[in-house]
Amino acid sequence: MPIIKFTHHLQRFFPTLAPQSIPGQTVAEIIQELDRRYPGLAAYIVDEQGGLRKHVNIFVDGELIQDRQSLQDAVSEAEVVYIFQALSGG
Amino acid sequence: MSDRLLLGTNKGLLILEKRGKTWEFVSESHRAIPVSYAMRDPRHDTLWACLDHGHWGTKLHRSHDSGATWEEVPAPKYPEGLEREPGHPATVSYIWCIVPGGQDQPNRLYIGTEPGGLFQSDDNGDSFHLVETLWNHPTRPTSWFGGGRDYAGLCSIVVDPRDSRHVTIGISVGGVYETCDGGETWQPRNKGTLACYLPDPHVESGQDPHYMTCSPSNPDVLWQQSHCGVFRSTDGGQNWQHISQPGGPVYFGFTIATDEHDENTAWVVPAVADEFRMAINGSLMVCRTEDGGKTWQELRSGLPQKNCYDLTYRHALDIRGDRLAFGTTTGNVFVSDNRGDDWACIGNYFPPIFSVRFA
User: Which CATH number fits domain B103-358: 3.40.50.300, 3.30.559.30, 1.10.260.40, 2.130.10.10?
Assistant: First the structure.
């Protein structure tokens, strides 16, 4: 069961967000469970069609996920899933 | 006249208030988050702010206490599986505006988005749904496209104060569309306007109304500042008359405001078209017509007249009574208390300003 870690920027909107273990086979399942625990969080990470937002990155054990549209990258054997914001802005 | 201004800026929502003879900074909300549009719905004394997070998507917030506290409500969403074009999912990439429904629709709100979506709420913003009749209009796949931004933006929504089922919208780029039956059917209303960037500038759809509004005293009088000039209609958009000045300066710009009581009076903030998008000759002016666009007056008193790069976006000019206010991409805010004859700068050094609305 991977530990999910987050950019601290998300704590502005979800102050109680902290690293935590979440069961799941895919990144999509992790996001679904996160949204159950923190209602509304999924909409910050994925768009309304389930695609990863353009300026959000998810790493599974240090590797950028491949499926940004439906988030089917496997996580069941992973140790850590990182949810970061991309470096952009101004 | 209103003594409170909402500024949607690149770094948050700023509220200014006139106290005595001076305008003062009252509050800042949504710090460092771009606010694409903000307005006060007088029906419920509710403030609305449309947010454009760089990373986390578009969000919608409302405040019932004049901006002291805010509540995030679900932002509009395109229905699951809907595509912007074949192979490309439709997702909200920008909220252009939020507009109250009619007086007989106390819980109706409309939202205009990129890409080209009109959303409707009938529960005072707790939820929104796409107006699919407009989205499914046969002209959308071929005549709606991006300009400035990547995709078509629904930037103007005019609800007829005499009949709430009569709604006219403007899409940039796409054109003006009208429904007379509460959104069941939509008709393009672009006759007489120009699409100067297309091989055929007189197309039925594909025009670029940067911003469209009506004269409140006669809602059949519509005005638009388009990419290719300023246009006015006296028959609810059935026909448009080109009222730009030959040779300018009234031609290109983004915004337009109308007088509450006089259907012949309107204001624009001209800019250099269109690959430049900057103040004309380094000086800032507002232009006013009082005869339905036959003639225009240049209003420069109090505005910077040299080394000026200020550009005014489509939602960044507003009017209340005899008072006008506008904000610019350079972060300046100007107010006139005498219908534009004289202006005062009430703040410099603000972030780039996307919207200015009296509260």
Answer: 2.130.10.10
